[in-house]
Amino acid sequence: MLQRGVWPDGSFEPGAVLDVLQRPRTRRVLWFTVWSSTAATTIAVGLGLPAAYVLHRLRFPGRGVIRAALLVPFVLPTVVVGLAVRELISTSGPLGFLGLDGSAAAILIGLVFFNVSVVIRTVGVAWEGLDRRPAEAAAALGASPVQVLRTVTWPALRPAVVSAASVVFLFCATAFGVVLVLGGVRYSSVETEIYLLTADLFDLQAAAALSIVQMLAVIALLVVVGRLRRVPDPTVRRSVAAAARPQRRDAPAIAATLLVLGAVALPILALVLGSLRRDGRWTLAHYEALSGRGDDLLAVPVTEALANSLRIAVDATWMSLSLGLVVAVVVTRRVRSRTAGRVRAVLDGFFMLPLGVSAVTLGFGFLIALDEPPLDLRSSPLLVPIAQALVALPLVVRTLVPVLAGIDDRQRQAAASLGAGPWRRLATVDLAVVWRPLLAAAGFAFAVSLGEFGATSFIARPTEPTMPVVIYRLLGHPGALNYGTAMAAAVVLAGVTALVILAVERLRVPGVGAW
What we know:
Elements: H1 2-6, H2 15-21, H3 24-57, H4 63-75, H5 78-89, H6 104-128, H7 133-140, H8 145-173, H9 176-183, H10 190-200, H11 204-228, H12 251-275, E1 277-278, E2 281-282, H13 285-288, H14 302-332, H15 338-356, H16 359-369, H17 383-405, H18 409-417, H19 422-451, H20 456-459, H21 467-475, H22 480-506
Antiparallel strand pairs: 1-2
Helix pairs in contact: 2-11, 3-6, 3-8, 3-12, 4-6, 4-22, 5-6, 5-9, 5-12, 5-22, 6-8, 6-9, 7-8, 8-11, 10-11, 12-22, 14-15, 14-17, 14-19, 15-17, 17-19, 18-19, 19-22, 21-22
């Protein structure tokens, strides 16, 4: 991408990037991306904080089920999220009377729906681990609940909130499918603009320039956030605190949580009901059409696309697990020099880049980099799994690193002193702790691969499409049958993804839930 953007004709021309940025349309795209991501992040944090408190600090029946249900939107394919919100606010949908279809507000709804679970999980896990005694001591000394929150709880919680907000902002800025489905021709983000420049206009230089700008912005944001995440009070104590029963003062937070739960359930419910209706009556015709090719728009039946997605997801899972486990082991081993520590930190950050860099950018990079010998993988069946494995890699690493870092090295030393070799120590010490998180990481990778759309849209072959690609192709052609088939396919894909995530949630290790 650097070569295409800065050396377009074999000579160094950094002005080519500036020329692209000076285009009026590029400025509008950049402004919309920043504006929509900031607004959606603010709303998601505002809705997620009360829900994080209720679901991670209070004890009530059904808490685990609600937590798992609110986690599902995050791993739903972005194209499914866009379709669900579109069905909710369309003229024939439950909220059609609001007139939001085709507006910027529709995109904000989709972005918040997709990312509020990130805030709930990230902040909730941190809140769950806070020691209650400082807050109780402050209250005993006469501090009001607001004073306790401001002087005790917030300083300890701020790094998790900043971390969650930064991740949500990155996900909003790179939510390709949401903007593509809900934005139409009126709104475009950096993601969709790169896709348009590449797939429709064949302006690879402009697409490369936007990709470079996006990567630089992501790196700068990660550096700034890394500094802001530092806990200002090093004496803050953490422990796995027992959840308390709800009190009367918790009523506003409980009401906000119910609001979030309803907001998450409505689009999914609208999608399911829409897939079961045709010409004003209930029918399974859209699901029966999954065995066809959608008015001959597709090279293969939709059911074959589902089989492709499952097969690719298996390959992407073992690839991301293999590399992720190696990376997690390397970045958690003790180092004896400051230089080695810095190298390890850089390595850790390098493998986190796919978390913030657009999947569209990743797919575009594969498209222009792996198109000639000795790395011509365009016709290889491994190209799509490799791309999806890289997209899932950060989640695998973030799931395994806290677990491996929490293992006391003295246990390995004790095993070695008793005669255990390296492999025996690995089996008896590390694997005994990491097997559950490893299965959870596999579930995350599998779910992410199932729904990956940005990179796959560039490199998937027409004869071997995945389900998200098929759904978008059906949406791109008019006709009630195509639209209904797309909804049915989205429901099937969402159901498979939800089952995987519910299984992952049962494998979560208490106190090690940040991802």
